Amino acid sequence: MTEPLELRCDDRVVGSYVHSSDLAGELSPRPWLHPLRTLGGVAVTELMPEDHRHHLGVSVAVPDVEGRNFWGGRTFVRGQGPTERDNHGVQRHSGWLRRTAGGFTEELSWTADDHELLRERRTVDVRRIDDTAWALDFTFALTNTTGRPLSIGSPATNGRPGAGYGGFFWRAPKHASPPDVFTADADGEDAVHGRPAAWLALADDRWTLVFSGPDPWFVRTGEYPGVGSSLAARDRLAVPPAATVTRRIVTGIADGRLGRDEAAALARATGGGPAG
Predict the structure, then answer these.
(1) Which of 45, 66, 85, 249 is the most buried if burial means most Cβ atoms within 10 Å?
(2) Which of helix, strand or coil describes residue 260?
(3) Which helix (H) or strand (E) holds 261?
(4) Where are the beta strands (DSSP E) in the chain?
(5) What pTM does this model have?
């Protein structure tokens, strides 16, 4: 494993980015952010937990790119369910376009069977909001380099209702009591999962995460705490040759538990929204 890139918000270390590692193939090797911490030093990510070893802090993970698994673990197969398959892809770091303590721009190659399917440009920036919160601004742009049409899918598009995950994914720490999850007008996992919302908050007594992004949200709190975007929530996402799919997710990271009004204010302060 190479030396992680240390991320700082002013004078405080708030995270590490690992861009190259020796992960096993079944984990769909890829870069990740972990640990990420509040300004008060509380960890807000989890790496390779026992319940899902392929959950890697904060990463971009997609379970189906033309049948290749860039998520890790088993593949959901229509009519069979979760199935062990030798179909895992790898996200390989190609180079830095910018690298500082406050953020970076990176190029990556998404490959499977020694063939590149996608080329990614990833931009991550850190900025302070106030004395108790900071923002992680994360943009990824995926370009189809195969010369032919391809599509991005999910377990939902392959027959598993409600499992439209794939894209940006944040695995939060698991504690004895699950965190609360809410949006501007809905509360609880059942009410917010699979639906778009201008912002979504995951709140624990120790920390609150407020996500802003354009896609329907994939949310888990009972089984484990995690929030992700859904590139293919219900239908496969077509990517023509040389076309680029771009997403921006901005996350406000605050110490302590925020209420709805405070979370809304943090979402406004982060300036999150769709990219391009």
Answers:
(1) 249
(2) helix
(3) helix 260-270
(4) 5-9, 12-18, 32-36, 58-65, 68-70, 75-77, 81-83, 90-100, 103-112, 115-130, 133-144, 150-153, 167-171, 180-182, 200-203, 207-212, 217-220, 226-229, 237-239, 244-255
(5) 0.96
